[in-house]
Automatic annotation (TrEMBL):
Pfam families: DUF6311. It comes from Micromonospora palomenae. Signal peptide: none annotated. The keyword Membrane applies. This is DUF6311 domain-containing protein. Residues 80-374 form the DUF6311 domain. The chain crosses the membrane at residues 27-45, 94-114, 120-139, 148-165, 171-188, 195-212, 218-236, 248-268, 321-338, 350-368, 388-415, 427-445. Keywords: Membrane, Transmembrane, Transmembrane helix.
Length: 616
């Protein structure tokens, strides 16, 4: 069987290490991966239910809700890809959102046992560990001979700046373990006689990846396509690629059939179902990588803790490059050293890696170049692609995440080559070790910043809410649930996971239609009631209330079918503090005096009053 064209060593492997030494190396990598994952997430382990990731508690609340809803949908026979529980009366198309359906189903028993916040933390931690181990498996079993080299490459990729940044609550992007499995699956298609089984396996992997991280799947497919094209066109590999092409295409066809069958319904919902949209609710201009960010240090690193971090990302969750200048120089040195000693076949692999990293770096800069926070008028290649379907739903800065695995592979290949050198050449390894230390030690991750968040009110945990709304009725917290005020979905997640039944809420944190030019937006378009409550919470001042605004707010409550309006003593603002007293006084001016029930203020909205503005 011919050598795989993967990012491989492209030379016959040396004899396997002694079984005992290999097992010790494997165990050491597992231990390192677990320790680093627990270290990064340690702030949440203190008390998952009352702690939140400081810079992204809104996404944390969303993923907790998705876990609770997915388990509820599975156990109650409901549609896991569309829900009427939020954004009443229109509902939300979860197929076009990041619904993590596979995670929700697999971890449903754990969600019911320990609750959504703790399950969220378990998955986040396991994601980091699994990413390191999956890359270690691919490297040590298929690409390099040295277990040390595989460990260095795998641990760097799993805890690279971009992965640690996305550990700020992104269960989709931290599922980096999918990438080495997809990569292995693609290259396994070329094995003679294995294309059918390989195609089936890869089709299932694609379906799983789409469920967990569709954007990541898209980027992985693009990166593999670029790599394969450059590798196959290289003179040293052209004949081998031509010979393998028929088998590869047959396997790819099976993959498309299997993945298409598994994803037929969610893909229909994604592109043609209700509440669909095109583009995204995020600004691609803002979410493009600053060129200077590649040489900068991330905030959650030793260098960042020492004051060397920067604010070149749109937010701390999107530090997608931030490799630091020493690592960039080390990567170039690794590439040059490997190239100088490579045979033509290995140079094909290195050329493909270099083109892939370079292309995705440039694309991550977006449509217009930006340097150190200052945007220029220089048009970049991404501007030619931004209007294409699917591409217009991706954030360009995240394309930089492709670069980290390339750097990790270069590090692994270099260590592997140094380990294979004869003893007389190993003096050079001392200089290389110093270079690795200077480049990698400043990037060692520090724990995610966490802070306390209000507990779910007793009004919800005790099930008192069921006494104040009809079965399946609509309840809304104040202010309404949005990305910046995620309490409503946290409360709903608690009720679903504790089998209390389901109440519905207006608005919510999701991507849906209603943005400019038919594009998506975060949450629904605002109405009078939620606009007034948002103004009160932000400013601490009661807005001017007129009879007209009261009637408009009553009309909004009727549109949503709200039966109860609830204000806890402490409202969680994901981005800023909110004034609970101003919220209470504003709601009182609109709806009359509230009642104190358990630990919340409650305004009941009788059906007659909800219909007052628009009688039937």
């Amino acid at each position: 069987m011919p050598t795989s064209p993967t990012l491989a060593a492209d030379q016959p492997p040396a004899a396997a290490p002694a079984a005992g030494r290999g097992r010790r190396a494997d165990l050491s990598v597992v231990l390192a991966a677990v320790v680093l994952a627990v270290w990064v997430t340690s702030g949440l382990w203190r008390d998952p239910s009352s702690r939140a990731i400081t810079v992204n508690s809104s996404d944390q609340a969303l993923f907790e809700w998705l876990l609770a809803f997915g388990g509820h949908a599975l156990t109650h026979g409901e549609n896991p890809f569309f829900t009427q529980l939020v954004n009443v009366p229109d509902g939300v198309n979860l197929a076009v959102n990041t619904s993590i359906t596979v995670y929700a189903a697999v971890f449903a028993p754990l969600t019911y046992l320990i609750g959504p916040p703790a399950t969220f933390l378990v998955i986040l931690t396991l994601n980091l560990v699994a990413t390191a181990l999956a890359w270690y498996w691919l490297l040590s079993r298929h690409l390099v001979r040295s277990r040390l080299a595989a460990g260095v490459g795998a641990l760097f990729i799993a805890y690279s700046p971009g992965m640690v940044a996305h550990a700020n609550a992104h269960l989709n992007w931290t599922a980096g373990w999918l990438v080495p499995l997809l990569t292995w699956g693609v290259f396994a298609l070329r094995r003679p006689g294995r294309w059918l089984r390989g195609g089936i396996v890869l089709g299932v992997l694609v379906a799983v990846a789409f469920s967990i991280a569709a954007e990541g799947l898209f980027f992985t497919a693009l990166a593999l396509a670029v790599f394969l094209a450059v590798w196959a066109l290289h003179p040293a590999r052209r004949a081998e690629a031509r010979a393998a092409l028929p088998t590869f295409l047959r396997g790819l066809g099976v993959t498309a059939l299997v993945a298409g069958a598994l994803l037929a319904y969610p893909l229909w919902l994604h592109f043609a179902g209700p509440q669909r949209f095109h583009g995204t609710g995020f600004d691609a201009v803002i979410h493009s990588e600053d060129i200077a960010a590649f040489g900068a240090y991330p905030q959650r690193s030793l260098a960042g803790a020492a004051g060397l971090g920067t604010n070149l990302a749109p937010n701390p969750t999107e530090e997608n490059s931030f490799f630091g200048l020493p690592l960039l120089l080390l990567a170039v040195a690794c590439f040059v050293a490997l190239w100088r000693r490579a045979d033509p076949g290995r140079r094909a692999t290195l050329a493909a890696l270099g083109v892939t990293a370079g292309l995705f770096s440039v694309l991550s800069w977006g449509s217009l170049a930006k340097w150190d926070g200052r945007r220029t008028d220089q048009l970049l290649p991404f501007g030619l692609l931004d209007g294409l379907p699917v591409v217009n739903a991706a954030l360009p800065s995240r394309l930089a995440l492709v670069v980290a695995p390339v750097i990790g592979l270069l590090l692994a290949y270099t260590v592997d080559q140094l380990r294979a050198d004869p003893p007389r050449r190993r003096r050079v390894a001392t200089a290389w070790a110093a270079g690795f230390a200077v480049a990698l030690v400043p990037l060692l991750p520090t724990p995610l910043a966490t802070s306390a968040r209000p507990p779910v009110p007793e009004f919800i945990t005790a099930g008192t809410w069921r006494q104040h709304i009809s079965p399946g009725g609509v309840l809304t917290p104040l202010p309404l649930t949005l990305d910046v005020t995620p309490d409503g979905q946290r409360w709903q997640a608690y009720a679903l996971a504790h089998r209390q039944g389901a109440f519905r809420i207006p608005a919510g944190f999701f991507l849906g239609p209603g943005g400019p030019d038919g594009r998506g937006r975060i949450g629904p378009p605002p109405r009078t009631f939620d606009t007034l409550m948002d103004q009160a919470g932000r400013t601490g001042l009661v807005p001017i209330i007129t009879e007209g605004s009261i009637q408009l707010c009553l009309a909004d409550l009727r549109y949503w079918g709200v039966e109860a309006v609830v204000l806890p003593d402490e409202v969680h603002g994901a981005k800023y503090d909110l004034d609970e007293d101003a919220l209470r006084r504003t709601a009182t001016a609109l709806l009359g005096p509230p009642r104190r029930v358990d630990d919340v203020w409650l305004w009941e909205v009788p059906a007659a009053r909800r219909d007052e503005a628009h009688p039937r």
